[in-house]
Amino acid sequence: MNSAVSIRHLTKDFSVGIRGVKLRAVDDVSLEIPRGEVFGLLGPNGCGKSTTLKIALGLVRATSGSTSILGDDAASAQARRRTGFLPEAPYFHRFLTGRELVTYCARLSGVKESDLEAAVARALDLAAMSAAADRAVGTYSKGMLQRIGLAQAVVHDPELIILDEPTAGVDPVGSAAIGEMIKTMRGQGRTIVLCSHLLGQVEQVCDRIAIMDRGKVVLQGAVDEVLSRRDRHLLEVSGLTPEAEAAARRALESAGAVINSVSRPRKSLEDLFRELVTGSKDA
Amino acid sequence: MDSLRRTYWIARVTFLEAVRQRLFSFLLLLGAALAGSSVAFRFLNFGQGELKFVADFGFGIMFLFGSLLAVVMTAQLLFAELDNRTALTLLAKPVGRSEFLLGKFLGVWAVLGVFIALLCGVLGAVLLARASEVAALAEAAGRVPPQVDAGGLAVFALLQWLRLGLVAALTLLVAAGSRTFLFSVVAGMLVTLGGQLQWLAQDLLNKGDAGLMQKSLAWFATRAVPNLQQYNIGDALVLDPAGVPEGAAAAALLSGTLHLLALLAIACGIFRRREI
Amino acid sequence: MGGRWLFSLGAGLLIAAGSATDRSWASLRPCIPELSRSQLEPSAGQGVLLGVLGGLRTVIADVSWLRSYVLWERKEEAGCEALMRLSCTLDPNSRYFWEQAAFAVGFDMANWEIRRRGGYARLAKEIQDHLFTSYARKGILILEDGAKFSRSRAPFLIVAGQLAEMKIKDLRLAASYYRAAAESPDAPWYAARFAARTAWQAGDRKESYAWFRQHWTTTLRVRQEDRSPDDLAELRMMEDALFMPTSARIPRQAWER
Ligand SMILES: Nc1ncnc2c1ncn2[C@@H]1O[C@H](COP(=O)(O)OP(=O)(O)OP(=O)(O)O)[C@@H](O)[C@H]1O
Ligand SMILES: [Mg+2]
Question: Is B8 on the interface with A (CB under 8 A)?
């Protein structure tokens, strides 16, 4: 078994209302998530992403189909010991401080008492939460909540990390920081599963994606494969004078290439924002 | 071993949450103040001995506030986790459903223990202080001075703690399967009321002339619901310990403990099937 | 996600807990006097009330007693009696409640009723007598109920005797209550004399003397430290009135004046 997560023919029906009308949230989904990669699960609101992840973690029962995590049955404590999870719109015990919260989660995840302090410090550091760690969680901003959520998800050094919309409600600088954290964790050899609506970011950090719609997987594959257009190329040039442009055209056309368009690349709004803003106060 | 450790930590954080909640400190202060001020309410007292009035008043306060606290706090602390989805975070860790639920219960029970200990402490102090004064008066008048039995008070505190544990477990059983906080509180109170009235079924069961149908209904009722009335023997235990038959308190402890375990097992069974 | 074993475990424990409760309840029930009352006269409503109130019973009893005072002053018969009975039910160990309730019902309420029906001058004498008698009997029933909960029965019996004597005007009945009071272990010093005097007045002079003499010889003389000289004096007066020969009288006591 080399898959970190393996989902086979998963179907989930919720019964809603008093009459118990069936609502199919997940419809015959099969996914193989290889180890050591960043996997992005995309799709519109209500397409069943969160439900799929919850089933994979044994929080919700599947109607049919099977899931396994790191080779173990998804509902087993064994599997969950090696998995970290950040739920969507996380909310933590507001009466604890950040450090208390992460310590509590570490204890529940089976971190040994002797390693506790170091593990907590490392996780807080990774999430850039060391400075605010001794404040009550109730006083945190949305971005800080996401980051402390990240810290509690990784404190027990899990092999698999599942992040449900880690950047929801976080400003672009903060979400870029979270993107960096994800890259760091992949560098440490972990598998990361990520749900997000920030397509630009998914494109940057993910090795592989799946797109869901109305409970079905409509596309899955490596990002390079899915996105690259093999018949087009992009040259990025600076100092292009009209003469140089004419020379280049001639040279390309004589070699048999067809120039479709010449335009100026635009800065993305995100890049502009990140250049102008130094970073959120929380960071 | 690990399982116990996790349960312990959940209980401990639950306790911490309850203590940091203002409602608890408020009820605690109010209860202690009322129990302590029962002396000031003596003007209500007609005829019975003063100590009996103080004891009854204090036990009544403990019963009322304790039951309220047990129902509301159990439902509140469970639904705080479920509604805020912190349960989602915890249960995605290697934490079993039963560990989670038992941790919640033990946390609540510890709070109730503090509540009972504090109120019994205040009440005991008041009773002992008044007893020495009343005893002096009684001796002067040639009557038998009243006695306050501290050991009896300790036994009563234990019984009362068990009773509140049963109320909490009943509420937890309801809450484990229900969707909303409000429903859990209302249903928890109704079930507690059922426990207060369980003795009617118990009497029916022991009555000779009840029909077979009545008897089997009573049999099921007395198994399903714990008898909460049997812990209402505070004044007997404290002021007249000779009136309590030997082994009666121990028998009540045994039956209550068995019921507690049964309720918790079923609550865990229900909670395991729940979708978080 | 199974957990079926938990349900089986729970069911087994419930059955064990149930039979343990059968046993513990049997031994604890007598310690809760409020509940044994409804065993005497079972009524579902009462049982529910007792159960719901739990430990607050005595406090509520006192509150309802306070409220009954207000109604007593307004002479509202039904409400006053109901509240007083409620206090008795909730706190049956309190002698005060039973006695006061019996006084209110047995002594006062007949007067309220007569006034309500037009007053002493207008209502026929027989009807007035009938009212006094029936209210007094009700009062006596309350006392008999209350005596079941008390270790000392004598005070209840004395009040019952007073009701019989003053309101029912049945001296024999009164004498029987006083006698029962005198014969109970916590009898007050005057109970025997009350019993003897009322029986005497009822006309049973010989029986009254015989009982009083017997009681004095076996109980009063032995129990009372000063050997009850006043009672002996009373006995001597009876002997005089009955013209008894010296040989039939109580032998002269060495300490007698
Ligand atoms: N407990 C539940 N009971 C009934 N229906 C539910 C439940 N949970 C989810 N659903 C439904 O299942 C569908 C999928 O929900 P899910 O939360 O998985 O969507 P999602 O892809 O995560 O959406 P989003 O991007 O908004 O987070 C939705 O239609 C939702 O209404
Ligand atoms: Mg979602």
Answer: no
Nearest CA in chain C to A61: C1
- The structure tokens listed for A98 are 């950040």
3-state SS class at A150: helix
Please say if the pLDDT value at position C155 is more than 50. yes
Asked if A85 is an interface residue toward chain B (Cβ–Cβ < 8 A), one would say: yes
Instruction: List, in order, residues 6 or more apart from C224 with CB less than 8 Å away.
Output: C189
In terms of Cβ atoms closer than 10 Å to its own Cβ (0-12, 13-18, 19+), residue C173 is buried
Minimal C-alpha gap between C58 and chain B (Å)? 6
pTM value surpassing 0.95: no
Q: What CA–CA distance (Å, rounded) separates C184 from C199?
A: 18
> C3: helix, coil or strand?
coil
First to last CA, chain A: 39
Q: Does C225 lie at the interface with B, CB-CB under 8 angstroms?
A: no
Closest residue by Cα to residue B219 from B229, B210, B230? B210
Q: What pLDDT, in 10s, does the model give residues B137-175?
A: 777 766 666 777 888 889 999 999 999 999 999 999 999
Query: How is residue A88 written in tokens?
Result: 């969507």
- Chain A residues with CB under 8 Å of B84 CB are 91
Question: Which of B37-46, C87-96, C172-181 is the most confident on average?
Answer: C172-181
Q: Compute the distance between CA of residue B42 and CA of residue B53 in angstroms, rounded to an integer.
A: 7
Closest CA to B168 of B65, B264, B249: B264
Q: Could you say which of A61, A107, A152 has the minimum Cβ distance to residue B89? A: A152
Interval B57-77: pLDDT, tens: 788 888 888 898 899 999 999
Decide the pairing of beta strands A208-213 and A38-42.
Answer: parallel
Q: Would you state the structure tokens that stand for residue A5, as one six-digit string?
A: 């997560």
Stretch A29-41: mean pLDDT, rounded?
92
Q: Answer yes or no: do C23 and B229 touch at CB < 8 A.
A: no
**Taking a C-beta distance cutoff of 8 angstroms, is the pair C24, B255 a contact?**
yes
- Which residues have beta carbons under 5 A from ligand 2 (an ion)? A 50, 88
Cα(first)–Cα(last) distance of chain B, in Å?
Answer: 26
Q: How many residues does chain C have?
A: 257
Pairing of strands A83-86, A72-73: unpaired
Q: A61 to chain C: which residues are within 8 Å by CB?
A: 1
Structure-derived torsion over alpha carbons of residues B59, B65, B67, B71, reported in degrees to the nearest 10 = -170
User: Cα–Cα distance between A212 and A42 in angstroms, integer?
Assistant: 6
pLDDT one-digit tens code per residue, A239-253: 888 888 888 888 888
Whose CA is closest to atom 31 on ligand 1? A46
